[in-house]
Amino acid sequence: MRERWTDLTGVWRFAYDDDDAGLAERWFGDGPERFDRSIQVPYPPESKLSGIHDPTFHPVLWYQRDLETPAIADGERLLLHFGAVDYRASIWLNGQHVVDHEGGHTPFSADITDAIDPARDQQSLVVRAEDRPTDVSQPRGKQAWAAEPSRIWYHRTSGIWQPVWLEIAPATRLGDVVFTADLTGDIDVQVTIDGQPSAAATVEVTITRDGEVYASHTASVSGPTAAFRVSVPAVQRDHTGAFTWRPDSPTLFDANVVLRAGDLTDTVHSYVGFRRVSVRDNRFVLNRNPYFQRLVLEQGYWPESHLAAPDADALRREVELIKELGFNGVRIHQKVEDPRFLYWCDRLGLLVWGEMANAHEFSDLAVDRLTREWAEAVRRDRSHPCIVAWVPLNESWGVPEIATSPRQQSVATGLVHLTKALDPTRPVISNDGWEHTESDIVSIHDYTPSGAVLRDSYGDPDAMRSAVDGVAFGRKILVSDRPHVGCPVVISEFGGLSFGPSGDDKWFGYAVADTAENFREQFEDLVTALLDARGLAGFCYTQLTDTLQENNGLLTAEREPKLPLAVIREIVTRSSRSIPQELVAAARQRARSRYG
């Protein structure tokens, strides 16, 4: 975050371009008369909050708004940022093209300084967004490519759906800052410099907490990138865990980063959390201790705004609700979530599995699109301490013949290695649910409605081994010869209990409860069965909220609980037989002996 920024969300002019004539007719330069409607940005036009509320097919969208001409000093630049535009975006200022971007879930920016017309009081900003509704080679996640949503597919989210803002920054500035903070008290810092740094350029990182300086380090910069380490002695000496990040104690340190290049100074503000995740001996390990993951599936969808959050407060409240329900983590499903949601997961303490929205065909184009956007997502989010696993593929979506196709297996395995090249600090799951090639966690989707069946499948180590060697939904769990000995097993989708109008085929769930008491009994039966399963490393319940016709949430679409929060919490937070308390105590004692 920089201090000098301007929010551009709000009312923009808007037009559909169903004939795709706008480029030839130069809508980007003809002024606002082309734009005959108004839209509330950043809500997609399919949604109610946008003011348009038209869910029918419109593949090309145009936006326009005027900008006040900013006061920019010599040596400063004006930067334009988009959080996300689905799916392909082209941007103009005063008729001058400034940037293109493809990928509906990842951010992009442009230096628009040279396109400013100083003779104008207002600068005209124009956005063209192209989102082909039936193009299944686009990474689209759960956005329906049929005219109407059905079963597990939802209304589309097209165009601008995350914030837009301006920033004033020096001509030579920090382009990217990546923090990797470990339990050792060391922070590995990578910075990217935009512009041409002078020979005397330096980067200074200062780590503080509650106003107290804990560390400061200055490094010389001679090119477009720099990498260095900042050591925080107080964390190195801490034997109590007071300075580490975990869900029950999400300790964060503020980080100020200052680039000095000649007479230019650029300052950005961020934060770091010291924690370590790993997998070992069939366990998920957080900060050297076995940790049982109690996750809930999060679609990140709101009835009035679709994939866009209705407001910033809703993102914080979502995290608070998940924690109040007793879960210690969340699996973001088929969406690269708004960074503001991840901020609250960092701040309030919630584990996150970061997942890519998948395409729904296998082709060279689909693989290229998925790979490029996934790499952007990992680079955007790898400094968040809350993220503890990466999931590039779900249920063989986009690789439907992965069981028998070496080429499709190579895509999944290649995504694992690409992810590890960008971020070697977190486990990666090649294909969540089944048909794993190389995965650090073996995740299984199992929607049996019976706790007894779950106990038979996962209740002891022998049953677990049989399950991993078996099938789910008719698909093998493992499709490669790579040994997965020692990999944790997580039931990453289960439950899906539908509690709502019965007998109505517009509702979708994997089992039906007809009363609140029956809903509680079934939920308790399933969760308790997995908590009793020795050797299981965690679970992810489907799902947090009702989403359109999927009425299988613990909360309604309006975020109202279907059972008292305390009832759900008591069930979710019961002790797991997988990680006995004496094992946790022994791990903590080993840590104290090693560092104390």
Which characteristics define this entry?
20% helix; 596 residues; single chain
Structure description:
Helices cover 20% and strands 32% of the residues. It has 10 helices and 35 strands. A 7-stranded parallel β-sheet has the order 28-27-26-25-35-32-29, with helices on one face. A 6-stranded antiparallel β-sheet has the order 3-2-4-10-7-8, with no helix packed on it. It has a 4-stranded antiparallel β-sheet with strand order 1-12-5-9, with no helix packed on it. α2 packs across α3. The radius of gyration is 25 Å and the shape is globular. The model has no long low-confidence stretch (mean pLDDT 93).
Cα Rg: 25 Å
- Give unreliable regions as ranges: none
Overall mean pLDDT score?
A: 93
Query: What gap, in angstroms, lies between the N and C termini?
Result: 37 Å
Strand portion, in percent? 25-35%
Structural class: alpha+beta
Distinct helical segment count: 10
Form type: globular
